[in-house]
Amino acid sequence: DEMDVDTIWMDGEFVDWEDAQTHVLTHGLHYGTGVFEGARCYDTENGPALFRWEEHVDRLFQSCKPYEMEIGHSHEELTEATKELIRRQDLSSCYIRPLVYYGYKSLGVSPQDCPTKTTIAVWPWGAYLGEDAIENGIDVKVSSWRKHASSQIPTNAKTTGLYVNSLLAGEEARRNGFAEAIVLNKEGNVAEGPGENIFLVRDGEIFTPGLSESILDGITRNAVIRIARDLGYTVHDTVSISRGELNTADELFFTGSAAEVTPIKRVDNVTIGEGTRGPITEEIQQTFFDVVERRTDEYEEWFDYVEA
Length: 308
Ligand code: PMP
Prior knowledge:
The protein is of the alpha+beta class and about 300 residues long. It folds into two domains: about 5-125, 2-Layer Sandwich (D-amino Acid Aminotransferase, Chain A, domain 1), CATH 3.30.470.10; about 130-290, D-amino Acid Aminotransferase, subunit A, domain 2 (D-amino Acid Aminotransferase, Chain A, domain 2), CATH 3.20.10. Helices cover about 25% and strands about 30% of the residues. Strand 14 and strand 15 (about 260-265) form a beta hairpin. It starts with 6 loop residues before the first strand and ends with a strand. The site of 4'-deoxy-4'-aminopyridoxal-5'-phosphate has 13 residues, from helix 6 and strand 14.
């Protein structure tokens, strides 16, 4: 297949790509009742290493809670399955996609007796928004679609159904010639990207919307806050950021497991800074890649090596 995957882990078993199937009456397919993760495994001197895997698995279990989904597998089992998938397919680096969803039993909205299904896939995936994006930044469009408010649906649970909003925002942006969207929350303040958190740099200080702004509690967001503070920057991570503040930012960038650290060079018609990757963004991005590719000994606690 085009993703170059030959083995998928499904409910405790390793199955061939073509056998990783589900029924059309799957509850999650009808109602968006799945939760998932997106993590990365990086190529390091000591072989492939899972980046902040603990936190991703913790978030997967947390995401299940509002839906009363029970993953019938332990944290350790999911970790071992993931490592085994990477070993079997001989990958040095990859993206990791665990998914937990309600399967089929009945099709009422209430999942009643629907079984909880758990799958993990891994595949090679380069820069989410492209190599050029990492280096030169991207143009983004403030979406006409607002984010779900966390009073409407828990936005801190990484739920499959939520990504219909991400699709609308992202595709609207791309139809209009932009690479990605920025989505405002119900209050009209900056929330995040369709699959990224956002950071703003102004007068040498760093700002990112607080967790009460209807965002996903991003693991890369958390890592970048830590890295930036360790580099000596002041990071304001409990703030609201108005739409207007985007225009007057010196620098803007996205973070995410897929997007890593991606500079933003234009928002709608407004050029950000010099219209290139800003210096603070570059420093943080460089440090981030040095960390994940283990060109430093720092933050060793963030890594779980595939070959024990
Ligand atoms: N916000 C949304 C809506 C996302 O889908 C993602 C990607 N998981 C992020 C933020 C970034 O989170 P993380 O750094 O944990 O990948």
